[in-house]
Amino acid sequence: MATVILLTVTGLGLGALYFLIASGLSLIFGLMDVLNFAHGALLAVGAYATWWAASGHLPGAGSGGFGFVLAVAFGTAVGTAAAALLELALIRPLYARPREQVLATVGVGLAVPALLSAIWGADARPFPTPKALSGTFGLLGARIPVNRLVLAAAALVVLVALKAFLRRTRYGLIVRAGVEDRAMVTALGIDVRKAFTLVFALGGAAAALGGALGGVYFGSVDPGQGTSLLIFAFVVVVMGGMGSLTGAALASVAVGLVQQFANYYTTAGLGDLSVVVLLAALLLLRPSGLTGRLA
Length: 295
Known about the structure:
Shape: globular
Largest sheet: 2 strands, antiparallel
CATH architecture: Orthogonal Bundle
Membrane topology: Multi-pass membrane protein
CATH class: Mainly Alpha
Radius of gyration: 19 Å
Helix content: over 70%
Strand content: under 5%
Keywords: Amino-acid transport, Cell membrane, Membrane, Transmembrane, Transmembrane helix, Transport
Distance between the termini: 36 Å
Pfam family, one: BPD_transp_2
Number of strands: 4
Structural class: mainly alpha
GO molecular function, one term: transmembrane transporter activity
Family: Belongs to the binding-protein-dependent transport system permease family. LivHM subfamily.
């Protein structure tokens, strides 16, 4: 029983990490019709910026208490700025050219890990995790890592915040209207481009936060971490329904649990294969994904 509880909570933590990455992908594709293959690079930028700040290079930041919160905020801010810059410099000129857009984001997704390797080396760096997040607590006989709950809480906050942005804010309504009829919204004197940049920045912020907390989850950061996690993020987006935040959340939970249980009860490596089988089965039964809509 204790093993099942541990695997369940750990799977939920892994699913929360996948959602933090997939939520930005889902938001950007659902609202802007952009497949951003550089999303993993934004995660890596956020992870390394947090690691750099938490290692004592940023005044006030550190590996414990408020200093770590400041380091995470710094890493998220750097990832947000990188996403906004990516949209302004690379994505915006290519909105009408989807093939070039894909090639450009793939190039950035390959270039950023190479740049990080050139600066800090290709080897994984130990992540300065706070003591409060390194411990465990008891739950029905199982010892549960505290950081799994932190990841789940962060994912829930991001889900609620993104939904509130889309449904309750002026810019969220502008973006939704711009997706339906961009020419009409522009004719009303509204600059849809600013709203699209904001959406891209929000997606980058979620990815950077995932990178920061991913360092806590794995205990280290490396240049290729974003690329490997991006694969599962795309699986989550497809399973949930392209552009659906609710679907991405449900798919993240399913993928995290299946992967954890399969890795434990079968031979190593079958967890990834189980996720692929789950994806294939879902697409055969429900090609549009779990929800198949923006929600």
